Amino acid sequence: MSRSKAVNTISEEAKYLSSLIIWNLEESKDNDFARRHAHDLQLVESAVRNVIPKEVSGLHITKVIQLGKWVVGETEPRRIPKLVLGSFGERNILLKNALKTRDLNIRIRPDWPLEDLIKWKNAPTELGT
């Protein structure tokens, strides 16, 4: 099986989620959960505002989840925020405009179901055999 055929098969089977992953947002270092959470929400909202076009009135962010564990006293916490949006349309609006964050060194990518991530991880191994 060629590499392109394996990649196409995986992407055709992908079951996209209405959530996104944002890279390189610096997390608050506050020890208090409520203040840390409020600060992190402000950072996410700011990143989203920089991305959405002016003609879009707003997006419905259902949930913001910080992936990974928060470590007290860590000098540069970099947990990755996952945004759960209200619809696939909202997700697509953000993805289409995600390049606007390149100057800020922030990256936005789609979230994939775990089984698809495992397929992508194992694809080079399967192609090598």
How would you sum up this structure, described in words?
Helix 1 (3-13) runs antiparallel to helix 4 (114-128). The chain is 42% helix and 17% strand. The relative contact order is 0.25. With 129 residues, it is of the alpha+beta class. It folds into two domains: 1-16 and 113-129, no CATH class; 18-111, Alpha-Beta Plaits, CATH 3.30.70. The protein starts with a helix and ends with a helix. The longest helix is centred in the N-terminal third of the chain and has 19 residues, at 33-51.
Helices, strands, pairings?
Blueprint: H1 3-13, E1 19-23, H2 33-51, E2 61-67, E3 80-85, H3 88-96, E4 107-110, H4 114-128
Antiparallel strand pairs: 1-3, 1-4, 2-3
Overview in brief:
By secondary structure, this protein is α+β, with helices and mostly antiparallel strands. It has two domains: 1-16 and 113-129, no CATH class; 18-111, 2-Layer Sandwich (Alpha-Beta Plaits), CATH 3.30.70.
